[in-house]
Write a structure and sequence with these properties.
five-stranded mixed sheet; 18% strand; single chain; Nucleotidyltransferase, domain 5; globular; 13 helices; alpha/beta; 3 domains
Amino acid sequence: MGNFDASFRGSEVGAPNHAGRDRLPDVNRTIATEQTIEKKSNLKTTNLIRHVNETRCLRLLRRASPLSRADIARELGLTRATAGNVIAVLLQADLAMELTEPQEAAKVGRPGIRVALNPKGAFFIGIDVSSTWLTGVLVDFGGTLLNRIVVPNSKNFRDAGPVAQTIADLARRLVVGAGVDTKRVRGVGISVPGIVDRNGVVVSAKLLEWEDVDIGQLVATSLGAPWPIRVCNDAVALSAAIGALDTHDTEDLLVVLLSEGVGAAIIRNGRVAEGVSGFAGEIGHMVLSAKPEDAKSQTLGLLGGYGPFLSLLSDEQSIAEGLANLAAIPNPGRALETTLDTWAAVISVGVLNLIHILNPARIVLGGPLAVLFPRVQKKVEAVLGANLLHGLTLPPIEVAGSEADTVARGAAGTVRDGIFLLPELDQIGNGLLPGRPSQSAEIAATYDGH
């Protein structure tokens, strides 16, 4: 500090101090830089507030639609002018639309104008991957199914390259077949039966024999379209399909996927509990044996999946159709009864362990194999009731989302739900490709062009 003051004193009395003169521009440059940073910070804050209001408006319209501008302003605690600006942006982005009330519905004067989500303003692709089939769907912003295509998976499914190419081809077919504008496709959701990290990399998918596969990047390369790609675990996709995510529900919910294997998502406050590595809920790897050598073969996923039922299915049907037909048989034969009894015992032990560990308020079963659960539900609940730890209450167990395309629709839903995420939540377990903006960030960039 003393040297800095001496420099200025020397300059004041006419002493030839070049060092002092050199520092003056540095000081001015520093002040200018700080002012620029402050302006940019203020701009970012303004844009953030704007984006938050727009996202809140979308969330409100998803929950209660259509609404008048006055209703929206009141519900969001905004002035009518601010609410009007927010709505104008959403209308321009085609994410919202205006609806005119019929004359008889209007109380006085001209018919009222209400605002609702625009179902045709955005479209989402969902692809569910198994070792045998790829199920693809295209849904609109309202979640309505527009197209569905099921194709066999590559026989060489262990090689992720051909699978990625098939996924890319399927995505294009879904869009072209529905005749929608490719510019309004907001992204592709891919669900995989395995462990997926926060960057969308499939760390382990035993049924596909994949390890550390960046399937999202492979699909993006094959697709060649600027669509964001989100890769998620199939149980997370199921949770999205049944509406368990991004809700105000505070109860602890356990979503169990019964399919080729067994997976789960632990839902707390409408969010997936990920664990320290993002791998929580991998119940399929739960070992149902006291022998260490059985750790890779006697698991809930292998014993509780649809493998034991395959010999009872027709080769002329998809596995989901075959399982649905088994569930509809009024008088099952001995082979089916025996298989159901064995499966019920496995599910009973697995669910009993989960209740003791997680103590959920409710359990929801989904996936193609869940269609058979009603046939064994009484047996399973009897086992649970007889062995439940004293003091615990048996949580209700229900079946939801057992249709063949449920998980694929949920995969599309995970991308759609990204539009409704508030900024502070955008980066939590988004599963997007590195370097790609989150879905909400992409929408925000569109909004911020004013």
